[in-house]
Design goal:
The chain is mainly alpha-helical. It has 5 helices and 2 strands; from the N terminus they run E-E-H-H-H-H-H. Residues 8-17 have low confidence and may be disordered. Keywords: Chaperone, Mitochondrion.
Length: 147
């Protein structure tokens, strides 16, 4: 039996399988114009070292190779020196945005960065993406722990 935890505004329909006498197969369809995205959970009591560890890992596992390379090399180079506020801004940047392509387009200058993400950290990321030092970035750096 499938139990839905979705809001009531979602429409649930049982599959039309003639072989099944139960409603085990559920198709979920959203009626609204935009799919609501869950908010990223705030972690107010997370120690700074653990937060940096999490962000270092999350910078490596973005779901698209372009951001994996850009963000993992960025985090490897700068994250260890971020204070608590800068770390929170970076956390919001990589986890508050629902689409990794947005981060990529903003960092590469293809699209303008929205005002809420136009921060010193974003500017640092944009400079990192320009790669004025001509560093070869063909693979992610080794994991480094900050605890």
């Amino acid at each position: 039996m499938v139990r839905s935890l979705l809001p009531l505004s979602w429409r649930r329909c049982a599959s039309d399988s003639s072989n099944s006498s139960t409603n085990d197969d559920i198709i979920v369809d959203y009626d609204g114009p935009d799919l609501p995205l869950p908010e990223y959970p705030n972690r107010p009591n997370e120690p700074l070292g653990m937060r940096k560890q999490r962000l270092l890992y999350q910078s490596r596992k973005r779901g698209m190779l372009e951001n994996d390379l850009l963000l993992s090399t960025f985090a490897h180079k700068y994250l260890k020196d971020f204070d608590e506020d800068e770390t929170a801004i970076y956390d919001e940047l990589i986890n508050g945005v629902s689409n990794d392509w947005d981060i990529y387009y903003w960092a590469t200058g293809v699209k303008p960065t929205p005002p809420q993400y136009e921060t010193d950290i974003m500017e640092l990321l944009k400079q990192h993406v320009k790669n004025t030092e001509k560093v070869a970035r063909f693979r992610q750096p080794e994991l480094t722990y900050y605890l």
